[in-house]
Specification:
Number of strands: 12
Order of helices and strands: EEEEEEEEEEEHE
Helix content: under 10%
Structural class: mainly beta
Radius of gyration: 15 Å
Largest sheet: 8 strands, mixed
Length: about 140
């Protein structure tokens, strides 16, 4: 957790305890994973349920941009930027929305400041390489 400029708490990673953040108060009675995500420059909270397998030709999916330092980090997995929230391209009610997210890795330099990218538009205009993965989550 960290404190924002208004004095409110915000979360830098998924948590399983209650969430009390500006504009969001959730008691989390079942200890579900809840975490901040960016959607068009605003923070929303999501309950990630994990990796799923789909046929991307048959199932509608939306994009989640994930800033990483490298796609293949020291442990062979993408090396995520610590403190960076995921970035969704849509929200419920948008035509392109789906609760199924396909990862799109945004490869940023080591001096990248976490949460500089806050929207799909930021990612697309950044000039950083974007790699579409065959990884889907719900």
């Amino acid at each position: 957790m960290a404190q924002d400029s208004s004095g409110g708490l915000h979360y830098t990673r998924d948590v399983t305890e209650p969430v009390h953040a500006p504009g969001f108060d959730y008691s989390n009675p079942h200890g579900q994973r809840v975490g901040p995500r960016w959607i068009n420059g605003e923070i929303a909270y999501a309950m990630p349920l994990g990796v799923i397998r789909i046929d991307p030709e048959q199932q509608k999916w939306a994009k989640e941009y994930v800033p990483v330092f490298s796609v293949e980090g020291p442990d062979g997995r993408p090396e995520r930027v610590p403190g960076q929230y995921g970035i969704y391209d849509s929200k419920p009610g948008d035509e392109s929305y789906s609760p199924i997210w396909r990862y799109h890795y945004v490869v940023v330099p080591r001096d990248y400041e976490p949460n500089t990218l806050r929207s799909e538009d930021d990612c697309l205009k950044s000039g950083f390489p974007i790699i579409q993965a065959d990884l889907y989550t719900n």
